[in-house]
Amino acid sequence: MRNVLLLLLVSAAYIASAVPAAEEKKDGYSRYIQIPDGEGVMHTVDLEAEPDMELLNEITRDPADNLYLLYTRRNQIISQTLVINDAASVTRSNFNANVPTVVIAHGWLSNQHTSTNAIIRNAYLRKSDVNVIVCDWRRLASSDYVTAVRGVPAVGRGLGQFLAFINRTTGQAFNQMHIIGFSLGAHLVGNAGRELGGRAARVTALDPAGPLWNLNSNRVNRNDGIYVEAIHTDGGSDTGALGIGSNVADADFYPNGGVTQPGCSTHLCNHIRAVDFFAATVTYNHLIGRRCTLQSQIAADTCRGTELHMGNDNLRKTGTGMYRVNTGTTYPF
Question: Is 251 helix (H, G, I), strand (E, B) or coil?
Answer without folding.
Answer: strand
